[in-house]
């Protein structure tokens, strides 16, 4: 099949085979191909990195800027159901033909340069934004920051959301090392926002060393929960009496404060009225982040896949009120801190339905069950059970059979876990 005749699915299958490694950090190969493509974004660029909260921050930023009337391009990863979710213009996923055209251009430019799936698709997204020229491009870092493909672009403003241990084999095993990696999306003389209330010293030191305009949560900006509403304070902005963001979860105020800090820092280039902030936060949606499905029993979808995210999920579960029993559908990658995730949620779960996932990186259901048994999950309560399933949708069906209307079911772990449920619900 020649390049021009490939469908999007065929292109994605081919791109997965172009590099012997799934992840190969480094920007040299990308700079080479980007130079051949003549890549240069003619818009304001906001880059978002961090361990958790990147997707929520991107979604809120996009919603507010669109409510303010700006044309917005958004690049995120990974997707849940369709690849097109990763590249959006004005809130709409780009169609197959537009993506295929960019893949053809990247393929022609790369020659013999090997590119990973993420590198290839990032170059395609950037070229599309260059051609469509939105007023603002929001770019989500895939992994780390310093050597991530998104860091090819010099951001006009960069946000680091939270910092915790994840992808330790690539980024390091301490918050200091990981914070240093993520701080490299900051640029000299430009706003550098850190939403984490306890940033690693290495992040702060790097920002100062390069002369970035560092905005720290608790020093330059912050937020307060005002009994059902919330308020923001920044260097010059004061915003009070705001409704909570439409995204569920106590951690969303921290993310929203970082978004407002970025908008305050860019206020002379991107004026945003307070009504646009209200409208954007009220309209924002993001599948798979403490997403509650309609009906009974309550089903919650969450892509929490590391201990930090699992701790936030536990906090959000605690805020839901009383339920008779909690069932968990859990599937996760083998290279994650599975024991840490289990420890954060074990006290809140009565029955575990663990599942295989359709990727070689995934932990098997039997292996996860072994970790749960080692953690004592089967002995936590009367009738507590651990059972294995072949897929998330099979596990959810089993949970629904056993759950009553006053129970709840949480589906969490890998994006693959949540994606299987969303794909089954798609029209």
In short, what is this structure?
With 427 residues, this protein is of the alpha/beta class.
Which blocks of ≥5 consecutive residues have pLDDT under 50?
none
Q: What gyration radius follows from the Cα positions, in whole Å?
A: 21 Å
CATH class of the largest domain: Alpha Beta
Largest sheet: 8 strands, mixed
Gross CATH architecture of the largest domain: 3-Layer(aba) Sandwich
Which topology of the largest domain does CATH recognise? UDP-N-acetylmuramoyl-L-alanine:D-glutamate ligase
Q: Reading side by side through the largest sheet, how are the strands ordered?
A: 4-3-2-5-1-6-7-8
Coarse structural class: alpha/beta
Separation of termini? 30 Å
Instruction: Report helical residue fraction.
Output: 25-40%
- Strand proportion, as a percent range, falls in 15-25%
Overall pLDDT confidence? 94
Report the principal-axis shape: globular
Instruction: Kindly report the name of the CATH homologous superfamily of the largest domain.
Output: Mur-like, catalytic domain
The tally of beta strands, per DSSP, is 17
Tell me what you see in this structure.
- The protein has 427 residues and is an alpha/beta fold.
- The chain is built from 15 helices and 17 strands.
- The protein has helices at residues 8-15, 28-37, 54-67, 96-110, 117-132, 168-171, 175-182, 201-210, 252-265, 274-283, 307-318, 338-345, 365-374, 392-402, 415-425; strands at 44-49, 72-75, 87-89, 92-93, 136-140, 157-160, 191-194, 213-216, 222-226, 229-233, 238-243, 291-293, 298-302, 326-331, 351-355, 385-389, 408-413.
- β3 and β4 form a beta hairpin.
- It is globular.
């Amino acid at each position: 099949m020649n390049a021009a005749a490939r469908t999007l699915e065929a292109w994605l299958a081919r791109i997965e085979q172009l590099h012997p490694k799934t992840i190969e950090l480094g920007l040299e190969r990308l700079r080479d191909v980007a130079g051949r493509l003549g890549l240069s974004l003619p818009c304001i660029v906001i880059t978002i990195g961090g361990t958790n909260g990147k997707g929520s921050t991107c979604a809120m930023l996009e919603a507010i800027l669109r409510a303010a009337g700006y044309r917005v391009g958004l690049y995120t990863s990974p997707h849940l159901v369709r690849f097109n979710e990763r590249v959006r213009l004005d809130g709409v996923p780009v169609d197959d033909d537009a993506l295929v055209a960019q893949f053809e251009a990247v393929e022609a430019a790369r020659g013999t340069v090997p590119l990973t799936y993420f590198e290839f698709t990032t170059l395609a997204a950037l070229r599309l934004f260059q051609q469509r020229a939105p007023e603002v491009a929001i770019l989500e870092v895939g992994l780390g920051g310093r050597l991530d493909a998104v860091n090819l672009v010099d951001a006009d403003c960069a946000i680091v959301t939270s910092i915790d241990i994840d992808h330790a084999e690539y980024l390091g095993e301490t918050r200091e090392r990981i914070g240093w990696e993520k701080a490299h999306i900051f640029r000299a003389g430009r706003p550098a926002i850190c939403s984490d209330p306890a940033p690693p010293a290495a992040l702060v030191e790097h920002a100062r060393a390069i002369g970035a305009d560092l905005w720290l949560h608790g020093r330059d900006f912050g937020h307060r929960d005002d009994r059902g509403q919330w308020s923001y304070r920044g260097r010059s902005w004061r915003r009070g009496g705001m409704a909570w963001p439409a995204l569920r979860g106590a951690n969303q105020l921290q993310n929203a404060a970082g978004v407002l800090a970025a908008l305050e820092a860019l206020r002379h280039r991107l004026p945003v009225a307070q009504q646009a902030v209200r409208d954007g936060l009220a309209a924002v949606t993001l599948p798979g982040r403490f997403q509650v499905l309609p009906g009974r029993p309550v089903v919650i979808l969450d892509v929490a896949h590391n201990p930090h995210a699992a701790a936030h999920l536990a906090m959000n579960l605690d805020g839901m009120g009383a339920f008779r029993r909690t069932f968990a559908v859990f599937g996760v990658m083998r290279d994650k801190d599975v024991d840490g995730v289990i420890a954060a949620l074990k006290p809140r779960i009565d029955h575990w339905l663990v599942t295989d996932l359709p990727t070689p990186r995934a932990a098997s259901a039997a292996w996860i069950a072994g970790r749960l048994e080692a953690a004592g999950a089967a002995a936590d309560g009367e009738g507590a059970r651990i059972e294995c399933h072949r897929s998330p949708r099979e596990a959810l069906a089993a949970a629904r059979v056993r759950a009553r209307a006053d129970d709840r079911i949480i589906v969490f772990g890998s994006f693959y876990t949540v994606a299987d449920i969303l794909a089954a619900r798609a029209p």
